[in-house]
């Protein structure tokens, strides 16, 4: 079933407050979200039956909707409960969970005050985003042509569907050239992120990561910074210029899908996945596992 189209699978999807058969979870072709990108979403992972940092994801979904000027008709607690419900209803324990909210078909045109808001949540089995067997060898990244825009031109702090258009284009281009992904700069020419993951570099035992002022400050990114702090590792969040890439010894990317994935190459620059990358990868994979309460 792993290779089946996403509109033709067995199971159920939570949609507007109820579980519906997977193939019946539909929206109208004149939905505002399809035409004008008024849609926000989350990507979550469950490990051993527990969704990692679920409430943070549900809160961000609400905040993304607020930024796009619409209100999700379910509370944060209700969204979190629905995520657990749909995962359980599909008999899943280790899986990917996708909540999405969009403006509906009640109004067509740029204005959408009466379009109505819909919410759906799906869950499915999904393994490593990149080749697990090759993970510590590191992936290869191209350097993207499109850049992360000035936040004065887009709602950069929302996890909104429309912001991923250039990411799809760049990932397609990178994969066509044999790369796993692409590193994007921002409109100023600074290092920003990959098409769906944040990026970290290592130099002389110090972690360096771009300041997320025009792209998402990822939940996984924040988790890794916290884990580094527990290890006594210094993390510098700052502007990083592409000419600095040659000076870093290690590189890795972070995200719900990517988890912690080492990088071996960015364009002409090479990196050797080393001790810090391995440590934070291991620490992250331990962190996401459900915590078992100690026996009394």
* Termini Cα gap: 42 Å
Element pattern in H and E: EEHEEEHHEEEHEEEEHEEEEH
Sheet of most strands: 9 strands, mixed
Specify the oligomeric state.
single chain
- Poorly predicted runs of 5 or more residues: none
Q: Beta-strand percentage?
A: 25-35%
Number of helices: 6
- Per CATH, which architecture of the largest domain? Alpha-Beta Barrel
Describe this structure in words.
- The chain is α+β, with helices and mostly antiparallel strands and 296 residues long.
- It has 2 domains: 113 residues, Aminotransferase class 4, branched-chain amino acid transferase, N-terminal domain (D-amino Acid Aminotransferase, Chain A, domain 1); 156 residues, D-amino Acid Aminotransferase, subunit A, domain 2 (D-amino Acid Aminotransferase, Chain A, domain 2).
- 24% of the residues lie in helices and 27% in strands.
- The protein has 6 helices and 16 strands.
- The strands form 2 sheets. Strands 8, 9, 10, 11, 12, 13, 14, 15 and 16 form a 9-stranded mixed β-sheet that branches. Strands 1, 2, 3, 4, 5, 6 and 7 form a 7-stranded antiparallel β-sheet that branches.
- Strand 4 and strand 5 form a beta hairpin.
- Helix 2 packs across helix 3.
- It is globular, with a radius of gyration of 20 Å.
- The termini are far apart.
Outline the secondary-structure elements.
Layout (H helix, E strand, L loop, with lengths): L11 E4 L2 E4 L10 H5 L2 E3 L2 E4 L2 E2 L2 H14 L8 H14 L5 E9 L13 E8 L14 E5 L21 H12 L4 E5 L5 E4 L3 E6 L2 E5 L8 H12 L4 E4 L11 E6 L3 E8 L2 E2 L4 H13 L9
Parallel strand pairs: 8-9, 8-15, 12-13
Antiparallel strand pairs: 1-2, 1-7, 3-6, 4-5, 4-6, 6-7, 9-10, 11-12, 11-14, 14-15, 15-16
Helix pairs in contact: 2-3
């Amino acid at each position: 079933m792993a290779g089946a189209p996403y509109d033709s699978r067995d199971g159920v999807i939570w949609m507007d407050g109820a579980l519906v058969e997977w193939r019946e979870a539909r929206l109208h072709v004149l939905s505002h979200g399809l035409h004008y990108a008024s849609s926000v979403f989350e990507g979550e992972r469950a490990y051993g039956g527990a969704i990692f940092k679920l409430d943070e994801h549900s809160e961000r979904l609400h905040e993304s909707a607020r930024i796009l000027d619409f209100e999700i008709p379910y509370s944060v607690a209700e969204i979190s409960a629905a995520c657990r419900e749909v995962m359980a209803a599909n008999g899943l324990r280790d899986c990917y969970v996708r909540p999405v909210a969009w403006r509906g078909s009640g109004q067509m045109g740029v204005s959408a005050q009466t379009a109505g808001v819909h919410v759906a949540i799906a869950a499915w089995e999904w393994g490593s985003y990149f080749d697990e067997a090759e993970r510590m060898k590191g992936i290869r990244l191209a350097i993207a042509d499109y850049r992360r825009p000035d936040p004065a031109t887009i709602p950069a702090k929302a996890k909104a569907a429309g912001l991923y258009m250039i990411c799809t284009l760049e990932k397609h281009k990178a994969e066509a050239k044999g790369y796993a992904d692409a590193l994007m700069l921002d409109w100023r020419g600074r290092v920003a992120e990959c098409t769906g993951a944040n990026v970290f570099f290592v130099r002389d035992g110090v972690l360096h990561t771009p300041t997320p002022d025009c792209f998402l400050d990822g939940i996984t990114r924040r988790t890794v910074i916290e884990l580094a702090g527990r290890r006594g590792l210094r993390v510098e969040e700052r502007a990083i210029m592409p000419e600095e890439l040659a000076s870093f010894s290690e590189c890795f990317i972070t995200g719900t899908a990517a988890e912690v994935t080492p990088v071996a190459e960015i364009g002409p620059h090479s990196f050797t996945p080393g001790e810090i990358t391995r440590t934070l990868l291991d620490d992250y994979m331990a962190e996401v596992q459900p915590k078992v309460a100690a026996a009394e």
